């Protein structure tokens, strides 16, 4: 139960941060990419703040023997770059640049009932289904490990 409550509270904190920083507004995000026009550097500051918090969190976490709410740390074991990672990153970036929403910024604004976030969420789900289907086609019907 404590894990569910803490996940809810951290999700709520993240969503509030997204909304307070303005990252739920696709125009603000798209203006970051408009270097020759109405460039808005605030996204860089939000990302920089996130990197600082992450660096502190990792530093603290790696000083612990185990996580607070799990028996072991669950960290990625693969270090190589492959076509799935690079292709997925490219599709993510293109979708973010076209819509102004990354999944983290999309979720808090879904509750507003606006058509833009709903269409973007539908595109994200369609992309996930397509990726799973392509993974099954490539592996002969068996889905590759995520």
How much is the average pLDDT? 86
| Order of helix and strand elements from N to C terminus | HHHHHH
Number of separate domains: 1
Q: Please, how many helices?
A: 6
Helix content, binned percent: 55-70%
Work out the strand percent: under 5%
Low-confidence stretches: none
Describe the protein:
The protein has 146 residues and is mostly helical. The protein has one domain (2-138). The protein is built from 6 helices and no strands. Helix 1 (2-21) packs across helix 5.
How is the topology of this model organized?
Elements: H1 2-21, H2 26-33, H3 42-61, H4 83-99, H5 103-110, H6 115-138
Helix pairs in contact: 1-5, 5-6
How is this structure best summarized?
The model has no long low-confidence stretch (mean pLDDT 86). The chain is 66% helix and 0% strand.
Defining key terms:
146 residues, 6 helices, mainly alpha, transmembrane, YeeE/YedE family protein, membrane, single chain, transmembrane helix
